């Protein structure tokens, strides 16, 4: 038998060649199946286990490989090797996703879109896990499970519930900035190629002199922004619920590679201490007038995965995956994600999820992690599984030590009110955003809000609507009036502190 024949013959997962792939072994031509047909067992048992737990959020996604190319020198801010010189290319994997829906949900749902990047750098994998919005609904991770529950299914009806969503948003005005973006036409992008991406959180750059600068990451689509109207998005759910996945695959297959201009905003520690907004509050943006966008490079997607499950479904992102020259900030939501994301991946894929090819660092890794399910790298062989030891030469390189972070105050561990005085203006930035919209964008946003809020039901309907309307009025009078009119709300009683719905 030739090597070619040996390499192509049918085998079990353990490598045993076999022939009877389509017929079960039975007692006679019409008799019962025999217990000893182990091929049947292997096929059915593996089939029963083909589905790994879907992500709690960002369950449905699309992804591709590509390159990040440095076009401008930012080494004065960071020593990260990914930015080390103009012209440097780094391989990346980018996964897009909807946030609240299940794997079978439609791509055109009104929802934020995940924008998660894995950079395969020589100092390890760097994950930048963001969205297509520069802000988020909440700013403390302790609120995250409650928020996500409201975006999922009602425990009684098992249906999506506008009442749950708007009840939560109206009780948490910090959400207003993100809600306004979601309810604009940017909540329904035409494709993943036609939307911006953001790191959303505040991160740190550390340069060769151990100086820290705070940074926000922006990815500006070079295809141009294109969005569905609410009517178009609703129609697309029925026509092609996978339209964004199809668009991404087909555009790359035909050589129309999606590209984004990569930019950053930079803030010094001194500026962070005096800025008018808390620079670590993910419900706020940094004004680009105060902190202009600086060009960094170009991101291009140019390679479709050869197998969706192996790459897109099994890719595992975590904000905890940083590299030398890039670090964290006191952003509370970021701090919570540092814990939550790796834990979610260990649950979903196992303790050794970083050995899966799409997650594996292509450069050397040395550590003392051992054992666990699906350990496929030899498990360290006979090498020591503890540190320090007298037998290997692995060492902790002091040049990678991060500098201390000066928070400018005597730090005390306590439970601080996230919306205390000075942290409780949830209206200025959403109002500014609304006033920047064109008349058509304003009308579409109001229409989308009205359509979404009309689903609020139950005995608390008026309470929830009135509470949310107060937030819209505080952001912008014309926004509040437009939504109230669309919902048929009589605002004549507003001066007395009450609003009545018809």
TrEMBL record:
<dbReference type="InterPro" id="IPR020835">
    <property type="entry name" value="Catalase_sf"/>
</dbReference>
<dbReference type="GO" id="GO:0042542">
    <property type="term" value="P:response to hydrogen peroxide"/>
</dbReference>
<comment type="similarity">
    <text>Belongs to the catalase family.</text>
</comment>
<dbReference type="GO" id="GO:0004096">
    <property type="term" value="F:catalase activity"/>
</dbReference>
<feature type="binding site" description="axial binding residue">
    <location>
        <position position="341"/>
    </location>
    <ligand>
        <name>heme</name>
    </ligand>
</feature>
<keyword id="KW-0349">Heme</keyword>
<keyword id="KW-0479">Metal-binding</keyword>
<dbReference type="GO" id="GO:0005737">
    <property type="term" value="C:cytoplasm"/>
</dbReference>
<dbReference type="GO" id="GO:0042744">
    <property type="term" value="P:hydrogen peroxide catabolic process"/>
</dbReference>
<keyword id="KW-0408">Iron</keyword>
<dbReference type="GO" id="GO:0046872">
    <property type="term" value="F:metal ion binding"/>
</dbReference>
<dbReference type="Pfam" id="PF06628">
    <property type="entry name" value="Catalase-rel"/>
</dbReference>
<protein>
    <recommendedName>
        <fullName>catalase</fullName>
        <ecNumber>1.11.1.6</ecNumber>
    </recommendedName>
</protein>
<dbReference type="InterPro" id="IPR010582">
    <property type="entry name" value="Catalase_immune_responsive"/>
</dbReference>
<feature type="region of interest" description="Disordered">
    <location>
        <begin position="1"/>
        <end position="27"/>
    </location>
</feature>
<dbReference type="Pfam" id="PF00199">
    <property type="entry name" value="Catalase"/>
</dbReference>
<dbReference type="InterPro" id="IPR040333">
    <property type="entry name" value="Catalase_3"/>
</dbReference>
<keyword id="KW-0560">Oxidoreductase</keyword>
<dbReference type="InterPro" id="IPR024711">
    <property type="entry name" value="Catalase_clade1/3"/>
</dbReference>
<keyword id="KW-0376">Hydrogen peroxide</keyword>
<dbReference type="InterPro" id="IPR018028">
    <property type="entry name" value="Catalase"/>
</dbReference>
<dbReference type="InterPro" id="IPR011614">
    <property type="entry name" value="Catalase_core"/>
</dbReference>
<feature type="active site">
    <location>
        <position position="58"/>
    </location>
</feature>
<feature type="active site">
    <location>
        <position position="131"/>
    </location>
</feature>
<dbReference type="InterPro" id="IPR024708">
    <property type="entry name" value="Catalase_AS"/>
</dbReference>
<keyword id="KW-0575">Peroxidase</keyword>
<feature type="domain" description="Catalase core">
    <location>
        <begin position="11"/>
        <end position="395"/>
    </location>
</feature>
<dbReference type="GO" id="GO:0020037">
    <property type="term" value="F:heme binding"/>
</dbReference>
